[in-house]
TrEMBL record:
Family per similarity comment: Belongs to the FGGY kinase family.
A Pfam family: FGGY_C_2
UniProt cross-references to InterPro entries, sorted A to Z: ATPase_NBD, FGGY_C_2, FGGY_N
Official protein name in the record: Carbohydrate kinase
Cross-referenced Gene3D superfamilies: 3.30.420.40
Carbohydrate kinase FGGY N-terminal domain boundaries: 7-193
GO BP term, example: glycerol metabolic process
CDD domains the UniProt entry points to: ASKHA_NBD_FGGY_NaCK-like (cd07772)
GO cellular component, one term: cytosol
Length: 460
């Protein structure tokens, strides 16, 4: 039996670390999931266990190479953003992988923005809302000003996907999808690092930028395989759509965060858009992607628990609840005189009295309606004045019949699809270096689509 040619993808999230093997038709032929116990930094704040992650990469690859049924042609990485690994001249980590949720010192933040033109001007130029440590460039700025001796020891600061690539290739590179993800490092008007990066001496700590389709020879022993430079996971998840669809679209990627990504909108960010949590990503070919964000997945999770407790129902019930037009007609009549909220970052459902609903299903339909109303306003921020004719929804809400019907009815002039694809970030990372490992053409059926007609849902 001939060994199957595969690509190995490490998909590293904050919680789950996954390894996939894809065959040349992009089918998953092997998968493995690991979770690590977090460690703490010098301030006792929880952070990634870098040593466990590093050893897991090596151990998992060694395991894969021992499997006779596969031959690994390439390895690539998708990983969460806003996280730097700080390496000395010997390639050894000299600091923890600091948690991007760690609070940022207010006095240092004030010092930074006052030095570089104020929050609004700077945020507009770098397409980075004020997010503290989520602006990963400010993590390096903090080290320079609070730990100057550590700063001197740092040879390179690599974003997490590029650190993982370095482990196998021994080569230091930066990547535009990671740089362009609310890092406060990039000048989007001039497509280069912002001037502050030079003025603070950070440019010397940043490795050369590599193209996303670049593949490197492997240093870690195994068969003759190539190593990709790694990608930011949200940007990687967009790649299968960019590869498969040429007509303008928006991807609403839903999970804890619901992110509307419009690769066909490069208009400069306005102060109003920044205030409403819009930003730019950079996709794998270097083009800008305007995006808007909501914390709706988290809100949904909390409110489903509240409904379950109030009506004495298991929250699992709501995962597959069918859309009921009659319930929506009733809710529409009830909400007829409610004022339009406009853009807000959280829905009104948290303040609703659950005893006003006849049953749990009615309450859940209202929750879905409130969240969709929120999503519509957020998506419009990146949709307006663009030629988009299709909306694709992936992630958790794509499987929610009520949510999808309501979204379709809200965008009745745009085709709305629930998109289903196993592990979009991992597939995107594999596609980015397709030509380096795969002799077959890219298949056209990677993404399964389910169309939702606006006429099938009640117009709201």
């Amino acid at each position: 039996m001939n060994a199957i040619p595969v690509i190995a993808i490490f998909d590293v999230g904050k919680t789950n670390k996954k390894l996939f093997l894809f065959d040349r038709d992009y089918r998953i032929v092997f998968e493995k999931t690991a979770r690590f116990i977090e460690t703490v930094d010098e301030d006792c704040f929880a952070c990634e266990n870098l040593q466990s992650l590093r050893l897991s990469v090596f151990d998992s690859l060694s395991e894969i190479f021992r499997l006779k049924e596969f031959t690994v042609k390439a390895v690539n990485f998708s990983a969460y953003g806003a996280s730097f690994v700080y390496l000395d001249e010997f390639g050894q980590a000299v600091a923890p992988l600091y948690n991007y949720l760690k609070p940022y010192p207010q006095d240092l933040s004030n010092q930074f923005y006052s030095t570089y033109g104020g929050e609004l001007k700077f945020s507009t130029e770098t397409a980075s809302p004020i997010l503290g440590n989520l602006n990963s460039g400010l993590q390096l700025y903090r080290i320079k000003h609070e730990k100057p001796e550590l700063f001197k020891r740092i040879k390179y600061a690599l974003h997490l996907p590029q650190y993982l690539s370095f482990l196998l290739s021994g080569q230091y590179y930066s990547d535009l999808t990671s740089i362009g993800c609310h890092t406060a490092l990039w000048d989007f008007a001039n497509d280069r690092y912002h001037e502050w990066v030079q003025r603070e001496g950070l440019a010397l700590k940043l490795a050369p930028v590599a193209a996303a389709d670049k593949a490197l020879p492997a240093l870690f022993p195994g068969n003759n395989y190539k190593v990709g430079v790694g990608l930011h996971d949200s940007s990687a998840a967009l790649i299968p759509y960019l590869v498969n669809f040429s007509e303008p679209f928006i991807l609403i990627s839903t999970g804890t965060w619901c992110i509307s990504l419009n690769p066909f909108n490069q208009s400069p960010l306005t102060a109003d858009e920044l205030n409403k949590d819009c930003l730019f990503y950079i996709q794998y070919k270097g083009k800008h992607v305007k995006a808007s964000r909501l914390f709706s997945g988290f809100e949904h999770e909390q409110q489903v628990k509240r409904i379950g407790v109030h009506f004495n129902q298991d929250a699992i019930k709501f995962r597959n609840l069918p859309f009921d037009p009659e319930v929506m007609v009733k809710l529409k009549k009830r909400n007829r005189h409610a004022p339009k909220a406009g853009f807000v970052k959280e829905s009104v459902f948290a303040s609703r009295d659950l005893s006003a609903f006849d049953n749990d299903e009615e309450a859940y339909h209202q929750l879905a309606l409130d969240l969709v109303n929120l999503q519509v306003e957020s998506t419009k921020l990146v949709l307006t004045n663009t030629p988009v004719k299709r909306i694709f929804v992936d992630g958790g809400f794509s499987k929610n019949s009520i949510y999808m019907h309501l979204l379709a009815s809200s965008f009745h002039n745009i085709e709305t699809f629930a998109a289903s694809m196993a592990q979009a970030s991992a597939v995107g990372a594999a596609l980015s270096i397709h030509k380096e490992w795969n002799t077959k053409p890219i298949p056209s059926d990677i993404i399964e689509l389910k169309y939702y007609s606006a006429s099938e849902a009640i117009a709201l």
